[in-house]
Inverse folding.
């Protein structure tokens, strides 16, 4: 995508965000919404500058938890997808249970993990893993299933075994689908890390938000929210950037060059 294409894709959303922020600022400045209840964007930015060192200290703890959880969840999703694809009986037995686990709220799983594993980092990591591995696993399974049947039949005709078929055709084909799952997992990783920190952390943006809300500091709560959104977008963008370097053979939309 060229600079012009990128501009046309981004500017409507950017314009909408600017309009929302302007309306937000105006509603607070005019007294329609009280400052103590909903701080204005300028107040939030000012507060972010004032508490920036402390905010960064907590943000780094959240980033560490999110990255380790994202990496572990992605690895678990890839391995599980390969096992479920290669062993159909296991897939029929396990896949419905995986779907059921995703219908249990994360906030409900957290206290159970805390009871079992205590208040250390392990239950928090497991919580992020649970959130991240499912979209990766489902994307990989779809990639295995979406393999070109003509190429599959051709490899069977030339004597390729199941393992050769998997490593030389199905796995490379699933890589394009893998990044779709990774981008979804990246979007959830930071948020799930924050939720995990609500359960009992001594550092992190989730912990900082709890302290700020108990201290009636709404500007600091919103500053944390803004930073969480920025970190989620940054992780999503990093995965998208890696995708562009890894998947170089995929043609661009419209038949042009990649």
């Amino acid at each position: 995508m060229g600079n012009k294409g990128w501009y046309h894709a981004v500017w409507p959303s950017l314009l909408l965000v600017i309009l929302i922020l302007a309306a937000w600022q105006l509603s607070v400045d005019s007294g329609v919404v009280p400052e103590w209840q909903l701080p204005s964007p300028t107040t939030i930015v000012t507060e972010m500058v004032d508490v920036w060192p402390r905010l960064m200290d907590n943000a780094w703890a959240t980033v560490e938890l999110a990255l380790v959880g994202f990496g572990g969840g992605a690895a678990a999703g890839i391995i599980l997808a390969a096992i479920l694809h290669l062993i159909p009986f296991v897939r029929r037995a396990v896949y419905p249970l995986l779907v059921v686990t995703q219908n249990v709220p994360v906030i409900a799983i957290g206290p159970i993990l805390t009871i079992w594993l205590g208040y250390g980092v392990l239950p928090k990591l497991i919580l992020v893993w649970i959130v991240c591995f499912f979209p990766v696993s489902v994307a990989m399974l779809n990639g295995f299933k979406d393999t070109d049947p003509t190429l599959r039949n051709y490899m069977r005709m030339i004597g390729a075994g199941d393992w050769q078929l998997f490593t030389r055709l199905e796995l490379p084909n699933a890589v394009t689908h893998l990044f779709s799952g990774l981008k979804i997992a990246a979007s959830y990783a930071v948020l799930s890390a924050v939720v995990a920190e609500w359960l009992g952390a001594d550092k992190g943006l989730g912990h900082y938000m709890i302290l700020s809300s108990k201290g009636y500091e709404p500007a600091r709560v919103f500053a944390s929210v803004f930073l969480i959104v920025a970190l989620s977008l940054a992780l999503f963008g990093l995965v998208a950037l890696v995708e562009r370097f890894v998947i170089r053979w995929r043609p661009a939309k419209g038949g042009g060059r990649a």
Q: What stands out?
A: Residues 251-258 have pLDDT under 50 and may be disordered.
